[in-house]
Amino acid sequence: MGAQQSLGGHERMNIVLAALLFGILIFVHELGHFIFAKLCNVKVLKFSLGFGPRIVGKTIGETEYVVSAIPLGGYVKMYGEDVGDEISEQDRERSFKSQALRKKAMIVLAGPFFNVLLTFGLYTSLLATGIEVPVPDLKNLMPVVEELDQSYPAAAAGLIKGDKIVKIGDNDINTWIDIINIVGTNPAKSLEFIVQRGDRLYSFIITPRAIQEKDRSGKPITIGRIGIRKSGQGLYTFIKSVSILDAPMKGAFATYKMGTVIFDSIWMTMNGEISVRNVGGPITIFSESSKAASAGVITYFLFMALVSVNLGVLNLLPIPVLDGGHLLFMGIEAIKGGPVSDTAIAISQRIGIALLLALMILVMYNDIFRLIGQKAAP
Questions:
Q1: What is the rounded CA–CA span in Å between residue 152 and residue 183?
Q2: Cβ(187)–Cβ(211) under 8 Å?
Q3: Would strands 200-206 and 191-197 be described as parallel, antiparallel, or unpaired?
Q4: What is the mean pLDDT of each run of 10 residues along the chain (378 residues)?
Q5: CB atoms within 10 A of CB 142
Q6: For residue 130, how far is the Cα from the chain centroid?
Q7: Pure H helices in 129-206
Q8: Fold adopted by 140-229
Q9: Where do the domains of the chain lie?
């Protein structure tokens, strides 16, 4: 009973740390908008963590600070920001809409910038203490065979270079790590591999060879190997710093590399190289951050840095209602020499909301089915 209570307490702590990570990222993003709005003397009506009904809140000065019921984001409500907002002559100079274009752009950019800044700060701090920062190589994460050991079961069964492993048993394969985990935990057990070769699917029965190794603590363990590998430097590029003075430059480089991974993943998803089933939402983020918390402080901060730069970069996509959508309208305004009409903004925002709702349905669908799959797993 004592062990069960301890485990329950440990799980509760992981949930708290996962919620804390989510809250910190939202807070940092909205804090960027808030600080730059104040610096530009724009009146801020509300600072909210979450959407929907208010749970708790307090008005300080002219701003209401609120924690709301739906923890899927947050917002800073500025005076005169939305289409149709009435602006009094007395407060016109403090409305968002009345600001110079460069000031409005700075306020909008500040949210994503603060998320990127958080990632830079975390990476720099870790590098300064001698900890390496891993940046994934998406091409190498794809479950495509690049090298085979002819003395192992995969080559004997008929796998060849270029085969894409899409399923092992009942498990869908999305990344090379999925293959490692399944093969490694099934030594000497026959497994059915579904492989895509060109436009056709093939089935192979492969029995991983039992290999004796030692875990990190030196304890002997038996794992499975089938003799397939990735070529090149591996699944990750490890960035390290040689000194504290070198850490900020390497931290900036690591932040840049992680930001480009996001664009690579979007491009590979559009090309069909990455399945849309890999797209995850808040449940996945919550689950993975809980695992990161369980793995230790360093892994937790690395995951926080990863999600933060993702949040910052994705918010810059030119989709109406996202920060990037606002910047797109400002770019159009700068080119044409006048603001975009309220009607055009309203229509595009409805389209943007529809796109985001469709994306939310997709990621929630993926999240729920991942959760069901995890609960159904032995």
A1: 13
A2: yes
A3: antiparallel
A4: 49 76 91 96 94 92 92 87 79 90 95 96 95 81 89 95 94 86 94 94 96 81 92 75 93 91 72 57 49 70 88 86 88 86 79 69 50 39
A5: 18
A6: 25
A7: 138-141, 153-157, 176-184
A8: Pdz3 Domain (2.30.42)
A9: 2-129+297-376, 140-229
